[in-house]
Amino acid sequence: MCFITPLQIQAQSSLQSFRLQQVKLLPGVFNDAQQTDMTYMLALDPDRLLAPYLTEAGLTPKKKNYGNWENTGLDGHIGGHYLSALSNMYASTGNAEMGRRLDYMLRELKRAQDKTGSGYLGGTPGGTAMWKDIAAGKIVADTFALNKKWVPLYNIHKLFAGLRDAYMVAGKTQAKDILIRLTDYIDGVSRKLTDEQIQRMLISEHGGLNEVFADVAVITGQDKYLILARRFSHKEILNPLIQHQDRLDRLHANMQIPKAVGFQRISEVGGDADYGKAAEFFWETVVNNRSVVIGGNSVNEHFNPMHDFSKMITDIAGPETCNSYNMLKLTRHLFEKGANVKYMDFYERVLYNHILSSQHPAHGGFVYYTSMRPRHYRVYSQPQVTMWCCVGSGMENHGKYGELIYSHQQKDLFVNLFIPSRLNWAAQGLVLSQQTKFPDEETTQLIVEAVKPGTFSINVRYPNWVKAGKLEIKINGAKAAVDAQPGSYVKLNRIWKKGDKIDVRLPMEITTENLPDSSHYTAFLHGPIVLAAKTDTTDLDNLIADGDQFGGYRARGKMYPLDAAPVLASNEPDITRYLKPVAGKVQTFIAPELISPATFKNLELIPFYKLHDARYMIYWKKTASN
């Protein structure tokens, strides 16, 4: 049965993203991060990542699989992430080796799938037998296990997503065939189960299977996959969200976020309004009530109680990078639906302060937990040793920075992010480059390098962090009227010509933001950029992570007493006036008369994404001065 999706019907009114192939990063911090990520990816051996799939199919692997999470039950999950990461990087850069590795992975996966003969493909040890048991109604599930195996649904979702991305992002048709055969296998199993049995399975962490099944419905035009997506939507989470009820306290955060991404995707593809309501409410409550200043959420992987964020300060295991990876997915979908700038403000906040900061700029290691505890630190992965979930999503993160810099609505262009880049929009004959050193400088310049004759709009985002009346635009040196307000777009409609230049000034100010529970802990921002202070480099145990399966990603060094951390000592309600720029240093501030005790008075506050290999302060306790 074929259908026309509401997504297609609404295409004329909603924003459309450009393909990664159409946006190239220009020199800057994001391009540097992309190249660092590619180096990390090249250090991995595809044959070792493929070993779990070949073994489970009854084939002899060419090399031994990796250790850590890759040989202790979650075998194969990094291989799925690697497909997505290769797809992103190949699409973004055109790097031939990325394409070659992707082709090789797909050939080997097809060989394994052909060997099973059923359409099944997976790396979970004993996965074939497990699915036969499930088809027979033998289902024993808890949060992190299904039929005594470590989250096999979550694991296979990484493969599903990797195959989807290999086809939809990188254009590899072989991936489409493998994906549909695997989906048909799961659909065949599900047809033998009642809805209650499937819901029992979904107690176990299962990633965003509902999202991928909705995507397969779009790829094939077949309604049966949309039905599968609805059946694999966890009603225990869905139904309260539809009623705008927040029951997320203490739930495992990254188990829930991918479900919400799937709810939104089902709403787009199938027109299910309630699913859309659930996704929007989920976003609102997580962003407004459960996220800290860097845009991330969770302590020890679980959502804080809304009115008690004390563990965010006392614990070392702050926001998990995978959570933000998935929140950006949800944010992108919601932004494209309605072009509301609040979504892009959040996207930008997370992109700079959590995602960009989660990769080491030199050796490329990825961060699992970003500690908010005063004077603690982060731990970085290494390619041959650590195989955490945040390594998998980390490889994906830094290869797709171009996904939302620009959008379009019919022939009108939207400039969403201020990142040095070049857009090639062949359908409109438009080549547009963005030259900027933002956020080190408060300006960006858009240059029309080629364009077809005709009138259209270039819409420039007016962020909420720029005060009303402060954003300035010049076109070819002449000041343009800005009648828009923060939280909207400045519409520049005219006949654009080759060589036209748009100069945008985005004044940034120092602001503060408390923890969501309004406690006495506060953080500083400069525009959208979180500021942090390096305090020391002592006791950095396992700064480069070891292979400890469930402890290597935690910063195990000494926890310094909270009462020994520097504080903000002031009776003034506006403490931002104490921060002064440091002469000769970009985005660097100092406040010696504000920070106490005296041993910490000369701490410099810099963008958090630039701070590595050290203990730091993001949140400061505010106390009255004597």
Question: Can you walk through the features of this model?
Answer:
With 626 residues, the chain is of the alpha+beta class. Among the domains are: 23-232, no CATH class; 408-505, Immunoglobulin-like (Sandwich), CATH 2.60.40; 510-623, no CATH class. Helix content is 37%, strand content 17%. The protein has 18 helices and 25 strands. Strands 16, 17, 18, 19, 20, 21, 22, 23, 24 and 25 form a 10-stranded mixed beta sheet that branches. Strands 2-8-9-10-15-12-13 form a 7-stranded antiparallel beta sheet, with no helix packed on it. A hairpin with a 2-residue loop joins β6 (406-409) and β7 (412-415). It is globular, with a radius of gyration of 24 Å.
What's the β-strand tally? Answer: 25
Average the pLDDT over all residues and give the rounded result: 96
Count helical runs. 18
The largest sheet, given as strand count, sense and whether it forms a barrel, is: 10 strands, mixed
Percent of residues in beta strands? 15-25%
- Share in helix: 25-40%
Spans where pLDDT lies below 50 across 5 or more residues: 1-12
Distance between the termini: 74 Å
Overall spatial form:
globular
